[in-house]
User: Fold this.
Amino acid sequence: MNNMKKGNHKLIQALNRSKVLNKIRTEGPISRIELAKKNKLSPSTVASAVQELIREGYVSEIGTGSSSGGRKPILLKFNPDNHFLLAVSITNSVMILARMNLEAKVLAKETHPIAGLQGEAVIERLLHLMDDFMAGQKDLERCVGISINVPGIVSDSQGVVHYNTKLRMTNIPLKRIFEDRYGMRTWVENDMNSVVLAERRFGDYAFANLIYISIGDGLGSGILINDHLLRGKHGGAGEFGHTSVNRSGIRCECGNAGCLDSYISWIAVYSRIITAIATGRPTLIQELSRGDYSKIVPSVFKEALRKGDKLARDLNEEVAEHLGAAIVNLVNMFNPEALILGGDLAHGNPELLDMVSAYIDRHAMPILKDDMVFGLASLGEEDKLMGAASVLLQDLLGFSLME
Ligand SMILES: [Zn+2]
Assistant:
């Protein structure tokens, strides 16, 4: 057998193995015979894949299934707790380190503030925290790897953070740094890409054409097309916050002017609130924050909204108009099956969702928007950690998106 044939053979084995594992995960407990039928594989192929999966601890045999006479088949089930993974989520304000099982459930986590660190200092601090966190894990031989997500332009194949303006990181080879230091396979992915995968895999939105948009400190998007992440050449696709909305607008740190980010991110809303207060406009936000500007956070803004504050409502309407227009562009450009909204400004802000939905309804092409699902992101506060887990599980165990 020449090398190429050997390579093909190995690849086919690996593919069959992930097919079998996926079926066990999604349809288990299941018998070997059912697995062979459902995957259209020969019983011997299934048997050898299962044997390997049992030996490695990903699958175990349980009891027996029902049978109409004859020998009862042994059933197989997925073991999400026999191994674990380590997930790291870097945001512009915190670093979260977690231990998770193979169904993306958080088993333990720590959150640490970034506290104004920038560039190399962020990485130094992260490695220091990771050293301690790893030292606390007793059974590292059962760890399948480390998955890191980070905002900015990230090359997933090289594991390099090319560019993050807020944390001032450029060309940081995070994958290599981690693999050299910890001797463990490491994945690095953009945070929004991670979250859209997690919403697809573990959330309420099992669509192959899915767009996730986050509106919080900044704006971002993750775009899934036919179950593939849209990355672009350098991993920079989906920089939704830097789409131009005003050719002569506010200067942006990306080098352009008039980026969407400068108009509707929380940072933009916050500065509009401060200006309004400074010019004497009455608002509940001032009472709710007791006159302390540092206490004006998204939850205070949303409380003011709930209490009917005029300034908060005006700003929310303005955000909805800008966001609606930008989303109509995405709908018309990508024709997604579902488009979901997450981030601090979206959660607990049903009016924003309603207004954006109405905007899409009025302005997007009817054929594209009529049956499009639009809703709130479903994964809650662990979404980024679940995203990191999704990236690793999809690659390592072939947890395919298609079922
Ligand atoms: Zn920009």
Summary: Residues 305 and 313 are 6 Å apart (CA to CA). The first helix runs from residue 3 to 27.
